[in-house]
Amino acid sequence: MRDDILEVLISENELQDKVSELGAQLTEEYADRFPLVIGILKGSLPFMGDLMKKIDAHLEYDVMDVSSYGTGFVSSGEVKIEKDLNTSIEGRDVIIVEDIIDSGNTLKYLTDLFKYRKAKSIKIVTLLDKPDGRQVDIYPDAAGFVVPDEFVVGYGLDYIERYRNLPYIGILKPEVYQK
Ligand code: 5GP
Ligand code: MG
Ligand code: MG
Q1: How many distinct structural domains can be found in the chain?
Q2: What is this model's ipTM?
C-alpha cells in the first residue's frame, strides 16, 4: 500500500503536533460550554478521534454522513444526507469536524442546515484546507494545514475507499489512478 505513495505531504508527527495545538485552542474556548462535536463521515474519523482526546472539556459527539463526491475525485456540487445526526442541535454550541474543505459545497450545506436547526453557534474545524478548489464562500474557523490543489489521501482521506488508514497525508502516484 505504501508503495502507491508518491510523496508524503504531512508526516504523522506533524499531524499529531497540529492536533494537540488545535485541541488546546478548543479547550480554552469551550471549557465551560459542553459543545457538540459533529464529525463528518467517513473522512474525519481519525482526525476527530485524535482531536477529542486533546480537548480537556466536557463534550458530546455525534457523526453525520453526507456525500458531495462520487467515488472519484470531482465535486458534484450536490450534497446528500446519507446518515443524519441522532442529537438535537437546537441551542447547542456545535463544532463541525471535517477532513478537508475543497469546493466548500459540503460545509456550506451543513452550516446552512445547522443554522436552520437553530444551533447556538457553529465552528468549523478542518484538518486540511484547499482554498484553490473553492466554489462557494466558506471559511474554516480553524484549519490544520493549507494544501495545494492536488488530490491527497491518508489519515481518513480515501481514493475509492482505500488509503484512509495511512497515518500521514500523501499524494498518490499517477499510475494508481490508471489501474
Ligand atoms: P467539498 O464539498 O468541500 O468539495 O469537499 C468535501 C469532501 O470531498 C471532503 O470531505 C472529502 O471527503 C472530499 N475531498 C475533497 N478534496 C479531497 C482530496 O484532495 N482528497 C480526498 N481523498 N478527498 C477529498
Ligand atoms: Mg469529508
Ligand atoms: Mg472520499
Answers
A1: 1
A2: 0.96
